[in-house]
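Quick entry between incubations.
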Amino acid sequence: MSHWIILPVVLPALLAPIIGFMMRHDIVLARVTSMVGSVLLLAISMVLIAMAMDGTTHIYRLGDWPAPFGIVLVLDRLSALMILLTAVLALMVLLHAMATGWDNRGRHFHALFQFQLMGICGAFLTGDIFNLFVFFEILLIASYGLMIHSGGRERMRAGLQYVVMNLAGSTLFLFALGTLYASTGTLNIADLAAKISDIPADEAGLVRVAAMLLMIVFAVKAALFPVQFWLPATYSNAPAPVAALFAIMTKVGAYAILRVHTVVFGPGVAGTEGMIDAWLFPAAIVTIALGAFGVLGARRLMPLISFSVIGSMGTLLVAVAVFSPVATTAALYYMIHSTFAAACLFLIADLVVSRRNSDSLTPSAATVQNGLFAAIFFASVIAMAGMPPLSGFLGKLLVLDALRGPDVIVWAWTAILAGSLLTIVGFARAGSALFWKSTAIDAPASEAGHTTAPAHATPAEVTPVMLALAALVGLSIFAGPVASYLEQTSAQLFDRSGYISAVLAPVEER
Amino acid sequence: MEFLVASAIGTMTAGGVYLLLRLRTFPVILGLALLSYAVNVFLFSSGRLAIDMSPILSKYGEATYTDPLPQALVLTAIVISFGMTAVLVMISLGAFLESDTDRIDIDPTDTDEDAAK
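Done. Structure below.
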């Protein structure tokens, strides 16, 4: 039993209170500590990837209690991948927040940031569904603080809505867990999977209710129709680096659907056969449409990007809804891609908006470095909309290729292709209003130097978004090795008996 | 007793949902508190209702016992929902002080004005 598995949870959990209590008056010290923590997290996630690479499912028993009785952490290829994704994204976001000074506009940014990482990593690692709830609460309570970081009227009100929405979601989660426990007597994911596949279809009514409730809870996190409405207000009012970090939060919902609804209520389970995909698929199609129309109709830059995030979650969940290894491979590739693409867009939008002092999509005089920002924005949009040569194109191609079944092809292809087109149109309109038309407008006559031109972006401010772009380029160049890793990942995910026997293995065997 | 517990959970949930759909922060907070009470009782009953039984296995005699796990779950859920309610109260207070209104919905004209400026 290797102790590496619990480090992604323990490290931020130790750093956060230290930063919060001992370094709250010293932003430099907090920055250094937070940075060191994020770099260490990246190193740990590399080790975990190397451990998971051999294909075995690693178990960490807390307190060394055997599986259905104690709490276990489970490391397989999927969770190692998600931890790595979190660590890389966290590093970029942290660099951006430090370079632009966002972290100094309110208190406790770094402590909350570390708590957020702890919750996300825990949610990816846990093998117990009640623990999943606990880690969800940890990441949510940190995200409440980050969401309203630096305050302001609109942000506080949007933050309030976000908190209420998620508290209602948590209550639903508890109802689902109670139902599940009442009908099976366990909350360990592997044990649940073993017990639920033994329940005959005509006695599985309560289990179906629980599966559906869990589905709704995860859908709230993943911003799936009809519970996506919190996302635009939240993301567009959150501080931009926080919105970029939240790009991984929607993926936590998608991960939970993948994990729970594949392993526990997965294909081949008599009680819930065909029920989840029958609901998930149409909902995901509508989500794509909503995202596309939102991108087309948005009048401000931040909501525009938020709607494109909704659209990408729709594309991701269409592939998840098929519940087949091939489609899951495509979904995972698209998940990595859309995380970085969304982060890219939010980071560049922050650089642009902070210089224009407004995020409305109306032409106004060009600010400094119009060309550089336009180029970065253009590249990010190419990635988000799924145009070649960046990884969005490959991701959408994989998803389309996986969705060739006769009963899904019409809806899925129409939605994804038309959605991409609308997204391109919406972004093209936004880009031309922001960057192109603005060159035709003269700068407002500065009355003897009253208006000072906004500062040029320092290299430190541009680096994080460049790193995110580099990640997207790398993802497209190394698409082959990444896809083969993801293929093994989804094969491992769909090997339910392998997961169950690994987690429930007797302790003596280790 | 099953009827009593079930109808109590149902009433609290109904009241909670009704209050949650109000437009002001105070009823919404009360609604969420009611919902969390409902879910706590619900979790408690998910280990079957039992009276006068200890949640510990006794090695002396054939004493029946009640499932201890839901009690641990409820304890965790109570702690979390209590903390969350406190956070919610603070955030809604902050939102009220910032915007001078305790409405929970965001008026679309507000955001447009905000965008225009």
